[in-house]
């Protein structure tokens, strides 16, 4: 469990909030991209970026020239708020008011620091590549010195973290159940299409990618557990 | 075109940035959820929520008790940054450095105000329901007075807005093209599964939902135009 704080305690719909580490990790690992929030001159900013979790650290990918990366260079780091959201379905109720969405959403607060150690940075870049294909870091050219210098990575320790989620079916009021309207859930799932090889590629599609001819994975049912995204 | 400002001008990869209204609208209309960024006591906060665009206003859905909604109550409104991201594919390069993602991402800056006019609020709630099914606002029970009072909506005028996007294939260096590694793009698409009716529903699946037995829409090719998400 992540210890709840003022910033990670629900003011409403408390039953949707959790601080369970395994559940938080599952969302961070399934999602490819996040929203990185920070403050510039008192104003809110958001940079969408890619992330990877390694243990209890969330790493955020960036370029050396981007604003938050520059700001995180200093010894104090950068106060950030990171959100990761997976949309699992749309909920159609008989009443407009009870329309909703099924989702899993992690929000993490803390201070991010620029990763300056080349070994740590290399490990993060390996983890980012492994995230999109287990074993792929051995089937690609690793970064050279120039590429390593051109890549910036922020590290955010996972300490103040919460998960908000809705799952399941329609929550119509008792009095609305006889209304003659369709109600139900439409599951949504980020689904991979068939791999499209670059020109000149002479090797077959790796095993960690969806194979040619295989139909996409069916969407999860709202009541059952959600399988991890294809890697 | 949205007029570029300091906050919506790229400091790097300028070719990925656009201010085209139609392209911005298309992303906002296809995506169901957004990240709403704001500042509390100098610290960044992000609230994931649902949105709908009506003309040149982005409306953000919330509950009357949530922090940003309370903060936006005042005459000055609330300084916000909203980001909406659609992940269109994963890009597998021969070099780890050139791994990337295809995406379309809108960021909007400005001051959000709480919608206090009941007519405007009703129109927004109608638009939110229409977004998940054209015609659905006529096949549902509209909000009553209590439900209207319990729903809060923020309005953000679309003035300072940018779109960042990557599309297309692998960007490997010339020198890497002969490496014996698989490279290519795996398209990703948020795909609806079959509708799961609530218990006791006596009417058929509406036409705006994926019909029973129809296979999911194939993922878009990275070169072609991306069709709008199923409504």
Structural class of chain A: alpha+beta
Report the helical percentage of chain A: 10-25%
Mean pLDDT of chain A: 89
| SS element count, helices of chain A | 4
Taking all Cα atoms into account, the compactness measure Rg of chain A is: 20 Å
Multimeric status of the protein: homodimer
Largest sheet data of chain A: 6 strands, antiparallel, barrel
The total number of structural domains of chain A is 1
Strand content of chain A: 35-45%
Architecture of chain A, according to CATH? Roll
Pair of chains with the largest interface and how many residues each contributes: A-B, 102 and 102 residues
Query: Do you know the CATH topology of chain A?
Result: Pnp Oxidase, Chain A
CATH superfamily of chain A: Electron Transport, Fmn-binding Protein, Chain A
Low confidence ranges of chain A: 213-231
Lateral arrangement of strands in the main beta sheet of chain A: 2-3-4-7-6-5
3D architecture notes:
- Chains A, B: Residues 213-231 have a biased composition (Pro residues).
- Chains A, B: Residues 201-231 are annotated as: Disordered.
- Two copies of one chain form a homodimer.
- Chain A has 231 residues and is an alpha+beta fold.
- Chain A has one domain (6-187): Roll (Pnp Oxidase, Chain A).
- Chain A is 15% helix and 36% strand.
- Chain A contains four helices and ten strands; from the N terminus they run βαβββαββααββββ.
- Chain A has helices at residues 21-30, 67-71, 118-131, 145-150, and strands spanning 17-18, 33-40, 43-54, 57-63, 78-92, 100-114, 151-157, 160-166, 184-192, 196-197.
- Chain A has a six-stranded antiparallel barrel with strand order 2-3-4-7-6-5.
- The radius of gyration of chain A is 20 Å and the shape is globular.
- Strand 9 of chain A pairs antiparallel with strand 9 (184-192) of chain B.
